[in-house]
Amino acid sequence: MAAKMLEECIGKQVSIYMDGGLAGCVATVLAVEDNFLKIEDKKTVRYINTDLIQQIQVKKAK
Length: 62
Prior knowledge:
Elements: H1 3-7, E1 13-18, E2 23-33, E3 36-40, E4 45-49, E5 53-58
Antiparallel strand pairs: 1-2, 1-5, 2-3, 3-4
């Protein structure tokens, strides 16, 4: 996924769908650097390789 598109998600709550073990993860995007997306959910901070991301859904603000 393109870094410019991911940078638009910083500070927003998103659902991330990707190959492998992480599917439908709901988290807040903290940063985008090189090939990694830094996200935070209720319990942890994770770093995800952006090459594995298939889809991101941005939650609309209420």
